[in-house]
Amino acid sequence: MRGAKSAKWVVGAIVVAMAATACGGSDSKDSGGKGAVFRLGITEPKSIDPVNAQESEGTLVARQLFVGLYDVNVDGTLNAKLAESAKPNDAGDEWTFQIKKDTKFSNGEAVNAEAFIRGWTRVTAKASASDVAYHMNGIAGYKELNGGSSDKFSGLSAEGDYTLKVKLSAPDFEFDKKTAHPAFSPVPKVAGAGDNKSFNDAPIGNGPFKMSGSWEHNKKITLVRNDDYGLTKAKLDKVELSILNPANGVTLEYKGFESGQFDWARMPVPQMPGAKAKYDPQGQWLKADVSGVNYISPFNESGPMKSADARKAVSYAIDRAEIAKGVFQGLQEPATALLPPSFKDVYKADVCTSCVKQDKGKAKEYAEKAGLKPGDTLDFGYNTGAGHEEWVQAVAKQIEDVLGLKVKLNGLPFKEALARQQDKGTIGIWRQAWTADYPTADNFFSPLLSTSGINPDANGKALGDNRGRYSNPKFDELLVKARQTKDAAERAKIYNEAEKLAIDEDQGVIPTWKRTQYRLVNSKKFSNIKLDFFEDPNLAEIGVK
């Protein structure tokens, strides 16, 4: 995600109603929430339907509306939801899932093996043009379905009502982990095709919450507790998500929390120290080291960042420690690897040699080898409204001071930023971040760095998350080898080799900061508020005091 998972996708200029919302009553069967309404601000999602839910806003909503085979605990372990069991064959190229019986969608339709087949097929179908379809690319028949030569997913079949058989095109002993992504959600028959707008805007799911009316674009999304949920029911009665102006969304979240409008908020970077001093003593300051990374994506295919030498020059020019201390006031730490430390079995620090310490001499040496000359222009893109302006400006100044390049900052609302990143002609570098969709190293390497992660359409538009278009056949081969390796320790060694190749030797992307997240939370009214594995509030588990 992004890139997609942690970035903010937005639509144009938006006017936001800042009026506080009162907590109303509930006619639910279980008023465990005592009529409580949990309120937060987001920016306009790309999609809240699993067919294309991809960034933090969209997946936050989709995960409340739908539940699949697995979820992920904060520590990265799988949490079985509708999967009663998951078994690979000896070769690792076929999985059998037993699905929990007698659960249903909020419209009463049964959640069975066919519902999962329906959902996965809907995401992958060519007509859906889904940006998250690539998560299915290991399933047999993906190419035919996604390419439009078939309307069936040949690798999926049902044995009875509650046994789902999945045949893969190649062995993958971690396939079960991937099913934690919302793309793998079941959907009811009424979902129809991927472009069914009525369902896109008011998805009917099987999760702990359901829609209250339709998505009011650029205004709000309202969720209410699903009292027919087949697992542990939520305590909150309602969740109100106000859609904020993308130009200053984080600032509006912070102001909204201070005014009592929101129960959960991010903060602009400059306000973090003051917010901590004020709210930490009150128990309303939340800190979490999460399973993600911030990085800069160089566009590898053309332009000034085409060579590894150019990419290393930029990386060596950045003083991560200085920015962490100055701009972030010590609240963030430099990243020297693409994988996060939470992936304990695979993580190795200092994989990225150029990330460990600023080296002006090496930066200039690599720039000379790459043909980068003082005065050359380097485009640096980022999404506005999410608090990135200060550190992006600091990085740009360091690059200018060390290499003499002219850095052109291009701040765009994220929907426009996405289109620019996907464009085949885009050059330079772009601010990115990624939070794990599921707990495997493959979730970082395959989407962000594999050749298949580019997934270009007929016009060359990158539909996948490898926006920088890094491609190395040897790296792709290592990923295939890792998936086919049953022993976890041996698989970790292969992933380490792959990361060394892509991040150190090729500098396919440039890691910048680890992802330590901070939130303000209304702990005076609510209990058990946490950041989940995906950096979202754990809405289905929040209690009321």
UniProtKB/TrEMBL annotation:
Q: Keywords for this entry?
A: Signal, Transport
The Solute-binding protein family domain sits at 79-454
Query: Is Signal one of the keywords?
Result: yes
Against Gene3D superfamilies, the record matches this protein to: Dipeptide-binding Protein, Domain 1, Dipeptide-binding Protein, Domain 3, Periplasmic binding protein-like II
Q: Where is the signal peptide?
A: 1-22
Please, which domain of life does this record's source organism belong to? Answer: Bacteria
Q: What is this protein called?
A: ABC transporter substrate-binding protein
State the similarity comment: Belongs to the bacterial solute-binding protein 5 family.
Q: Which InterPro entries match?
A: Peptide/Ni-bd (IPR030678), SBP_5 (IPR039424), SBP_5_dom (IPR000914)
Q: Where in the cell is it found?
A: Cell envelope
